[in-house]
């Protein structure tokens, strides 16, 4: 009888051991994120952003290929909009396209919007952050599986946030 009680107790302790699910940054940061539009005047954006980020985000500029350190960033984390910090891509969707620009096969659902762009005459699908409208890059149909898409992003329009786990173990 005593032994049975003891086993019952151990079982209860094991059953109540805390389960720590490993959440992605999208789950940590993306959920509950306010999607209310962020607007600033052109002068305010100019003051808020670096000159290069301002040119890309607010005037659809393009950074030179291979100029962004994020092109070769393969750490685990999340890529957020450099204009308003809305999470746009997960590191698990990043791949090396060889183009010299950070490339992803899919964005975080609902966080970017696309529109046709005729800047180089040939129609391309421009995409931008849904919250601040900041231009990020162009999406093409020559990407890898599972989507076949290549979201070609200007590195200067993004900021990389390593996962909490990595950030805690990385010493300066
Ligand atoms: Zn934004």
What does this structure look like?
By secondary structure, the chain is α+β, with helices and mostly antiparallel strands. The chain has one domain (24-169): Peptide methionine sulfoxide reductase (Metal Binding Protein, Guanine Nucleotide Exchange Factor, Chain A), CATH 2.170.150. Helices cover 24% and strands 23% of the residues. It contains five helices and nine strands, in the order H-H-H-H-E-E-E-E-E-E-E-E-E-H. The protein has helices spanning 2-15, 25-30, 42-48, 51-59, 164-169; strands at residues 77-81, 87-90, 94-95, 103-104, 112-117, 124-129, 135-140, 150-153, 158-162. The strands form two sheets. The protein has a six-stranded antiparallel beta sheet with strand order 3-4-8-7-6-5. The chain has a three-stranded antiparallel beta sheet with strand order 2-1-9. A hairpin with a 6-residue loop joins strand 5 (112-117) and strand 6 (124-129). The protein is globular. Residues 5-26 have low confidence and may be disordered. The chain binds zinc ion. The site of zinc ion has 8 residues, from loops.
């Amino acid at each position: 009888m005593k032994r049975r009680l003891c086993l019952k107790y151990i079982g209860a302790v094991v059953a109540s051991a805390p389960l720590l699910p490993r959440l992605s940054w999208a789950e940590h940061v993306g959920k509950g994120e306010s999607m209310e539009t962020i607007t600033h005047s052109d002068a305010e954006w100019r003051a808020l952003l670096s000159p290069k980020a301002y040119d890309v985000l607010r005037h659809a500029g393009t950074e030179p290929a291979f100029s962004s350190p994020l092109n070769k960033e393969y750490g685990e984390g999340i890529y957020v909009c450099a204009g308003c910090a809305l999470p746009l891509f997960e590191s698990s969707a990043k791949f090396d396209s060889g183009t010299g620009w950070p490339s992803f096969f899919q964005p975080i659902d609902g966080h970017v919007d696309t529109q046709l762009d005729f800047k180089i005459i040939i129609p391309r699908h421009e995409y931008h952050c849904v919250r601040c409208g900041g231009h990020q890059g162009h999406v093409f149909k020559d990407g890898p599986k599972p989507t076949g898409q290549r979201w070609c992003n200007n590195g200067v329009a993004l900021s990389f946030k390593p996962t909490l786990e990595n950030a805690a173990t990385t010493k300066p």
